[in-house]
Amino acid sequence: MSTERSLVLVKPDGFQRGLTGEVLRRIEAKGYTLAALAVVTPTREQLAAHYAEHEGKPFYEPLVDFMSSGPVAAVVIEGQDCIRGFRSLAGATNPTEAAPGSIRGDLGRDWGQAVQQNIVHGSDSPESAVREIGIWFPDL
Ligand code: IDP
């Protein structure tokens, strides 16, 4: 167990629905702290870097369209094992399958769109976290 940082995004669906405060509340209630916070409308270049591992997949273009459709809240959180911990708070990728109690399970909707509009992103490994924090907060 170690203190680490993770990159969290409140995606355009969550931001537009006014769920940013609820996501931040759950992060803070869990005991993680906020190291950086910004509201930005992502550029396609930023998203290409962020989602490089998914390039070529069927949901990639719809995902970039969706993520560039409006503002997101970009957040760096800090805390013990917060990378795995936030993934657990977020729940499974598909909101229909996400466990009740998780952000996606409680608040996410699944209308069978080309892309899952699942409210939040969280880094999936220490390497991803460092890479993603560099994309969203180059000065941090
Ligand atoms: P994660 O966000 O739970 O880590 P990833 O597999 O990294 O999931 O996928 C990134 C994002 O791409 C997901 O959060 C979701 O918005 C979208 N996505 C992933 N897989 C699919 C799919 O099979 N269909 C539609 N959208 C998907």
Automatic annotation (TrEMBL):
**Enzyme class per UniProt:** transferase
Please name the catalytic residues of this protein: H121
Task: Please give the chief subcellular localization of this protein.
Answer: cytoplasm
* Binding locations of ATP: K11, F59, R87, T93, R104, N118
Please provide, in alphabetical order, the Gene Ontology terms of the cellular component aspect for this entry.
Answer: cytoplasm
Q: Which GO terms describe its molecular function?
A: ATP binding; metal ion binding; nucleoside diphosphate kinase activity
Q: Where is the Nucleoside diphosphate kinase-like domain?
A: 3-140
GO BP terms: namely:
CTP biosynthetic process; GTP biosynthetic process; UTP biosynthetic process
Q: Which reaction does it catalyse?
A: a 2'-deoxyribonucleoside 5'-diphosphate + ATP = a 2'-deoxyribonucleoside 5'-triphosphate + ADP; a ribonucleoside 5'-diphosphate + ATP = a ribonucleoside 5'-triphosphate + ADP
Q: Which cofactor does it need?
A: Mg(2+)
Compartments, record wording: Cytoplasm
**InterPro entries, per database record:** NDK-like_dom, NDK-like_dom_sf, Nucleoside_diP_kinase, Nucleoside_diP_kinase_AS
Keywords tagged on the record:
ATP-binding, Cytoplasm, Kinase, Magnesium, Metal-binding, Nucleotide metabolism, Nucleotide-binding, Phosphoprotein, Transferase
Please report which protein family the annotation says this sequence is part of.
Belongs to the NDK family.
Q: How does it assemble?
A: Homotetramer.
Query: What is the role of the protein in this entry?
Result: Major role in the synthesis of nucleoside triphosphates other than ATP. The ATP gamma phosphate is transferred to the NDP beta phosphate via a ping-pong mechanism, using a phosphorylated active-site intermediate.
What name does this protein carry? Answer: Nucleoside diphosphate kinase
- Which organism's genome codes for this protein? Intrasporangium oryzae NRRL B-24470
Q: Tell me what gene encodes this.
A: ndk
